[in-house]
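Subject: two folds for Thursday's group meeting

Dear M.,

Sorry for the delay on this. The cluster queue was jammed most of the week, so I only got both jobs back this morning. I'm pasting them in the order they finished. Each block is the input sequence followed by the predicted structure tokens. Could you check whether the formatting survives your parser before we put anything on slides? The first protein is the one we discussed after the seminar.
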Amino acid sequence: MKKWLFLLPALCVLSAANVLADSTVIRVGSIHDTSGILGHYGRSMDKAITLAIEDINEQGGLLGKPLKKIAFDTRSDPDLYPELVGNLIAEQVDVVHGAILSSDREAIRQALAAAEVPYFYNTQYEGGVCDRNAFFTGVTPAQQAQILIPEVVQRWGDKIVVVAADNNYGKITARWIEHFARKHGASVLETRFFDLAVSDFNATIKSIRAIQPDMVVSLLIGGAHLSFYRQWAASGVRGKIPLASTTMGAGNEHVALTKDEGDGIMVVYSYSRELDTESNASFLEKWQNRFGNTDDIHELAVSTYQGVHVWAEGVRRAGTLEADSVIASLESGLHINAPTGKLSIDPLTHHAVTTVHLIELDDQKMKVLKSYRDLPPRDTQIVCNLKLNPQDNQQYAISVELYDVLFPQAR
């Protein structure tokens, strides 16, 4: 039985109770792993919600009302997600932002759809979710691996080893890496998957040295997996076999590495603190003034900050908090000027259309080498069209082969 089904009787009562709810504030739900193994990501994401709410309240709130954050810490425990999202629904929140792992997203997404509470998943992920009640502001493989792989193949060579987290993101993204490698004349010699708790990679590194690929592409996740990069440098192979990653730096992990451990790793993200734009400078100043430093800003935090602001713009244009009207407003082609640049919502998939940057880690900074503007979520567009099928509500396994058929001109 789905974890969220136990909430359905309560949802019927809560739906009626919403009519009688105190309407003096707008409630913004935050459900994040602010402690535990994923706490490094979740704490900054929760801070981002605080900052965005304060931004909006300083401008008079929404619909003449202030915003109030209702937050729960899931403590990196997947079993807590269904219970705590039930608490948010009981608090009669008007929107929910949260979750990091795909499994945690799927543990709450259906309950929020049943309760008609719009949901924002502000984390980069493997793509494929099609749900009119949900919105996705993080990058997907078509906005990340599509850029990264041809760039590093051109620079480094055509033989790749992939190391990945043994979860939905790692497995699906590994297929995209293999696809884009093949498309650009390269091949993946081997892919290895690791549980999130694994922290000893010495045997793996020794094996990779024996294979002698032209590069390693890392899809590793979380604090334990950070050990890979330290052990890679300590083994003496750094500088001989270069590294690229779709995950390193998403949680600001590169700041925890020394220059000798991190320099030269190639990544693609929508955000870098080194972006030289007015919108980023303003964001950094606000974060500094509110929290004392900017050391904990990372890709997922910025996506969360932007997720709150794009939702708020949807509410402004709708002129109401009524879920269907807000969703229709978000589908109308609106955009915001965000720290990452222009951000809009693709009406077909509810995923972000965004700018991404080819980045090289350099002395604990993210040096932007190239920028690619207004990239749509082409991978999810293969399987999702909410204009034609507004009742669709599932995560699809995307055919990487179909990608080239539908988007032959894509990189």
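Second protein, same layout:
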Amino acid sequence: MEFVSGGITAPKGFWAGGVRAGIKPNAQKEDLALIYSEAPCAAAAVYTQNRVQGAPIAVTKRNLANGRAQAVIVNSGNANTCNPDGEEKAQRMCGIAAEQLGIPAEDVIVASTGVIGQKLPMEPIEGAAAALKASLSRTGSGLAARAIMTTDTVPKEAAAQVTLGGRTVTVGGIAKGCGMIHPNMATMLCFLATDCAIAPELLQTAVRRAADETFNMISVDGDTSTNDTFAVLANGLAGNPVIAGEDEDFAAFTQALTQVARALAKKMAGDGEGATKLLICRVTGAKDTADARKAAKAVICSSLVKAAMFGEDANCGRVLCAVGYSGAQVDVGKIDVAYESANGEIAVCRDGCGLAFDEELAARVLHAQEITVAVTLHDGDGAAEAYGCDLTYDYVKINGDYRT
């Protein structure tokens, strides 16, 4: 597998675009995105586990009941959540896309992101429909990625290729997410496209496995959003033999899907609201994968660890504390902790006890923009990674006036 450029339009037959419809008053950015496949697709998705869910999720679930879709329409600036007319408007968004593309409205995935509890204005979306279709192109991934952003500071795209059955299969995608990011099926919007030929039920299995390893392992602030959707379209235009069972091709495809999802998950974590650093917690030596995931999540969710990383303080006690309350079965007398970055690495704990270390080296290691907290448990073969960011003054500022 190798990473390539092109984002969600890297696979064969996928088009994307975006326009500024004016959904959020005075916003000077694109806020309406469209993704389209030249051929009908197998489709699969997973969603937020928050019991308060955006209206688009209910509509998308119904539309994907048959495992098929051909387009995605997304707006930013308004979540279309907790509104009495939310589902009606989400269905209308599907209809707008369908009318422009000449496909059934039931073959459209719909998603929204932004402020909760405010009615979604349909006039801007209706008025921008023709321009939205005209914006579609085979190189429009970046435009669509920008149109789904809210407090994101950069668009998020990734793509990779793998050989299956002698044919080159491409997976590409876009994502958004900076705040309300916490593991519980991932908390964000992410759309992946692939030209792989795969049965819908196998695609759903691959999507769930990819989510568990990537989007379910990120956290920015501990708040699970209401609108999270991770959806994948597969149009089969690569020409590979259809994947209909859990064979070697399925394993290779799932790995490629997971790696693209992981790249996007890391970009989301590193672009958390107010963040200055991407934090990776790598846990090895756990009793099993489940325990490794628990420990890694606890570390990157810890407000004290996040604050320490912002202050570039190599405090091992906060990491040990998080592992201790994570629910993972660990022998605290065998835990090792080290910090790693492009600037070097430094061990700060061995056998559950803090070590004397060079403070100047520690400061250099933690001054990098990407820091790995390496936790070794010496209890088994379980391993996992979780992704987060530091906690800064700007996080409070952004969320203090998010709506106003």
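Two things I noticed about the second structure. The longest strand covers residues 32-47. The radius of gyration is 21 Å.

Cheers,
T.
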